[in-house]
Amino acid sequence: MSRIISVIPNDDYTLLIEFEQGSKILFNMQRLIKTIPYSSLKDLNRFKEVKLEDKAICWNSSNASESTIWLLRITIDNILFMLRD
Asked: What's the number of CA atoms in the CB half-sphere (13 Å) around residue 15?
């Protein structure tokens, strides 16, 4: 599986994701942010705080007062599976 080398969040809740082999996809997150786990990403500023992991994209917890940090995370496999729909 390819590694993600960059992710660019856009104002229309899409992510331009570039992989190490030069492939790029435009991943539309509009449907996903309507679900409970990702609903905090409706805030565009929060959505734009996307970070990279080797084979995933993620966002830090929306609640800074939490004693434990949790991530919203989408792996490459999840992204490719959702693109099939």
From this structure: 29
Q: What is the pLDDT of residue 83?
A: 79
Q: Which amino acid is at 31?
A: R
| Bridge-based pairing state of the strands 24-28 and 14-19 | antiparallel
CA distance 46 to 75: 19
pLDDT for residue 55: 84
What H or E segment, with its residue span, contains residue 74?
strand 72-75
Element (H, E) at 78: helix 76-83
pLDDT at 30: 95
Distance between alpha carbon 23 and the CA centroid of its chain, in Å? 17
- Cβ atoms < 10 Å from Cβ of 29: 21
